[in-house]
Write a structure and sequence with these properties.
By secondary structure, the chain is an all-alpha fold. Helices cover 50% and strands 0% of the residues. It starts with 20 loop residues before the first helix and ends with a helix. 33% of the residues are buried.
């Protein structure tokens, strides 16, 4: 039975408040480990996998099961006593704790989406000038493939944005982009090398600015200090950029450039969840380990 003095005590109120420590934890977990994770399912499956792994060889588990278990164990390692708190409670109370973490994930995503919505307009404008045509900071309808600048940044690198027919088909959704196509903004100087796709990948200028905006502070975007020196990173003791945090920022930038109004994992037009998961899958691919290590080293330089 959970202790009455537990730091994670639910208290008399049923509606979670923003001050609960698990909500704060959920904000960091969503940004740095898994943004679209369903926390109840993760915990239920994680507890079951913990038990099964005591009696079954590791090679009998699917890749997805091993990944799911890794994320679950990573979550427990990030928050002292969380495992004890979860397994010591009745199922309903355990799920209430899960819901607090889920709320934190959702709150962080909403806050970052709101902040980047206006900031991205400033970042993509020519220095000292305004975009032509102008883009409103608080309205997204004219973004995406409807605007020449956001369209060029969002255009998958296997398509030619300078081709008027391609532009027209993207705008009219005769060509639908999918979540595992890489947009130009992911690359340094927006340049894609088909002979070596890793050249400049996930090193784009917009990614760096958005990372600083989210993990340091909005005022740090044009400054030199590392993105992990203060702000959200400092609050949570974050000293290194994580691959999952790069994927999270990439998904946020892609959404900010788009004309889609609501950041939803079920959105089949922008396909944000698939985009995010495809990046995580690349980062977890053992055949890409050297490139991923080089990338993380670049971010933490």
């Amino acid at each position: 039975m959970a202790s009455e003095t537990s730091a994670f005590g639910l208290g008399p109120r049923k509606k979670p408040t923003t001050s609960h420590p698990l909500i704060a934890f959920g904000r960091h977990f969503g940004r740095t480990v898994h943004a679209f994770c369903r926390i109840r399912s993760l915990v239920d499956r994680g507890i079951l996998l913990d038990l099964e792994m005591k009696t079954r060889p590791l090679n009998t588990f699917t890749f997805e099961e091993r990944q799911e278990h890794r994320v679950y164990r990573q979550m427990l390692q990030m928050q002292p006593r969380l495992e004890e708190e979860l397994i010591s409670r009745p199922l309903e109370e355990m799920h209430q704790l899960c819901d607090l973490i889920q709320k934190g994930c959702a709150n962080a995503r909403a806050d970052d989406t709101k902040g980047l919505k206006g900031a991205i307009v400033d970042w993509i404008a020519p220095p000292g000038e305004e975009l032509t045509p102008r883009l409103a900071r608080n309205i997204k309808a004219d973004r995406g493939f409807h605007h020449p600048r956001t369209g060029a940044l969002l255009c998958p690198v296997d398509l030619d944005w300078s081709d008027d027919e391609i532009k027209s088909k993207l705008r009219n959704q005769e060509i639908n982009t999918i979540g595992d196509q890489w947009p130009a903004f992911l690359f340094l100087d927006y340049a894609y090398d088909p002979e070596d796709p890793w050249v400049g990948l996930f090193r784009g200028h917009l990614l760096v600015m958005a990372y600083k905006y989210i993990f340091t502070s909005p005022s740090s975007v044009d400054k030199e200090p590392k993105a992990t020196k203060s702000g959200n990173a400092r609050i949570h003791g974050m000293t290194q950029v994580t691959p999952a945090s790069i994927a999270y920022v990439a998904a946020q930038v892609r959404f900010a450039l788009s004309s889609t109004s609501v950041f939803s994992k079920t959105d089949r037009v922008l396909d944000s969840e698939r985009f995010y998961l495809s990046i995580l899958e690349l980062f977890d691919d053992v055949d890409e380990r050297m490139e991923v290590n080089d990338l993380v080293g670049w971010w933490n330089r």
